[in-house]
Design the sequence.
């Protein structure tokens, strides 16, 4: 069956790599991007819908597909206003899940973060945890929540502290074994590949996937 996929966050690191993989995957004949700015030079199978994602309901008629991939996320440095931060990291993924439910989309995959906990006193973790809970509450048949640790890959913007963190994590990687495996750095391309494999796996429902499990899924024989 030829499929249609929706991507939210295709201009980011993980979303961009996911887009590349879906473009080259012949199972997908239609890829819909919902974003605030256009990406140039994409093939005809990619259709872009430009607008304010904080008002995602404006795209309700166009929000139809077999699968939704949500790679939306910001940082405290880029978005210091906590209200706007929550509107992005909580509001957009939940609004997308609600639209997916309303429009009969059966697969929803979202990138969250390690430490997500709706009861946490840490704003970032609490926001992610509440987002996860309200996504799950939509009861979309196949829902996957990916909780990567630090995400590796080449970003356009320079994040000095994050680069230092990645170097440290790479040094410590061999020591993170057993229960500590979930703290391992995971490459953005690996996350993108795991998302596609989860979307094409049968019997998937309300799955929470940590960094080490993301690595395992990406290495499976599924395409």
Sequence:
């Amino acid at each position: 069956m030829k499929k249609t996929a929706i991507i939210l966050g295709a201009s980011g690191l993980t979303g961009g790599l996911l887009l590349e993989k879906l473009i080259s995957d012949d199972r997908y004949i239609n890829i819909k991007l919902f974003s605030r700015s256009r990406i140039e030079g994409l093939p005809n199978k990619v259709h872009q819908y430009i607008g304010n994602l904080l008002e995602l309901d404006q795209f309700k008629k166009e929000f139809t597909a077999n699968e939704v991939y949500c790679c939306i996320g910001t940082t405290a440095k880029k978005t210091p206003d906590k209200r706007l931060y929550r509107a992005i990291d909580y509001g957009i993924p939940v609004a997308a899940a609600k639209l997916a439910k309303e429009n009969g989309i059966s697969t929803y995959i979202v990138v969250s973060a390690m430490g997500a906990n709706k009861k946490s006193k840490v704003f970032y973790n609490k926001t992610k945890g509440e987002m996860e809970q309200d996504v799950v509450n939509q009861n979309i048949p196949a829902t996957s929540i990916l909780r990567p640790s630090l995400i590796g890959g080449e970003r356009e913007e320079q994040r000095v502290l994050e680069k230092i963190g990645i170097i440290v994590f790479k040094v410590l990687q061999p020591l993170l074994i057993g229960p500590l495996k979930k703290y391992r750095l995971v490459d953005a391309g690996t996350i993108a590949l795991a998302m596609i494999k989860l979307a094409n796996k049968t019997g998937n429902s309300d799955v929470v996937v940590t960094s080490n499990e993301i690595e395992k899924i990406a290495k499976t024989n599924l395409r």
